[in-house]
Design goal:
The complex is a heterodimer of chains A (199) and B (150). Chain A is mostly helical and 199 residues long. Chain A is 65% helix and 0% strand. Chain B has a domain at 64-133: Flavocytochrome C3, Chain A (Flavocytochrome C3, Chain A, domain 2). Chain B is built from three helices and no strands. Chain B starts with a helix and ends in a 54-residue tail after the last helix. Classes of the chains: A mainly alpha (199), B mainly alpha (150). Chain A binds chain B through residues 71-73, 160-163, 165-166, 184-185, 188-193, 195, 197-199, and chain B through 52-55, 70-71, 74, 76, 79-83, 85-86, 89, 91-92, 95-97, 117.
Chain lengths: 199, 150
Amino acid sequence: MAQANVNFVTRYRQMLSRPASVALWVVLAFGFVAGIVFWGGFNTGLEATNTEAFCISCHEMENNVYEEYRETIHFSNRSGVRATCPDCHVPKDWTHKIVRKVQASKELWGKMTGFIDTREKFQANRKEMAQREWQRMEENDSRECRNCHNYDYMDFSEQGRRAAGRHSTALEAGTETCIDCHKGIAHELPDMSDVKGWH
Amino acid sequence: MKKLLAIILGCILTGGFLSLPTLADTGGLSSLRGTTDLDSVPNAEEMKRVPKDRIAIERDYLHQPPVIPHQVRGYNVNLKGHKCLSCHSWKNYKKAGATKISLTHFDTRDGQQLSDVSPSRYFCDQCHVTQADAKPLVKSDFKSVDALTH
């Protein structure tokens, strides 16, 4: 048994002393460390773009949607709990987040090319942008809203009559999701003339 | 002559200064702002809250625009959209469980009937207002007609 162990060790020592294998090990070790650094850095970088400060670092966002959002319940309310931009716009879990981030690079492109550099241009493009958000939320059953608002824990006796009435029927049955009834909770709305449920 | 003028001017000036404090005085008269002197700012009333939601509030006279029995914070009415009509229009009222706007809301001021809400009725809060749980500022002994009392 002892003999076998010694053989094992010497065999490896010999292996390592050959130049070719040393190179191999160095490459492996380097790759391993670089992997950690890259992965960590990537995720840290990703997190940095996942803050409100980043979202409104370009004035298109700060002067338009942020200004509007400051007047709504998700910015200031009696309990002081806030929902920030990424809470509503970026999925929490990794896969969905990456997908959304890649889509968001298109928005960066819009910034670099001056696509929406004035309030007028922003308003002109708002319908399209809003529709994209509505569609996303309809398709994922308003997943980001539900990260904070859980139907199972809603106390209907604490809600208003209108809220309880609609939540205990259409929402309970799943025929409609949050965004179907709660458009425009955080920003001004685009032209709503042909949107379902609006006048 | 000059002396006289100086005396008159002096009188006016001192008189003006002397009467200044009394100008700010309410003269013991109590108005809606209480008896606070006119040159000081009375303490602000406590903020009034609009109750979240209740059943329709009784009307006091025929053709009264009914008051709004729910909160309307953040309900925007502008060129782009009309939050009120997303519940109160004829298209949407059933789903929302709301009262539909009455036929009069389709008429222009000349009595011409339109196919949609008349522009003169577009801004609901010109006529319909929310209510706060506040003590009336002035007493009123108005009684509504029999047909409206329950």
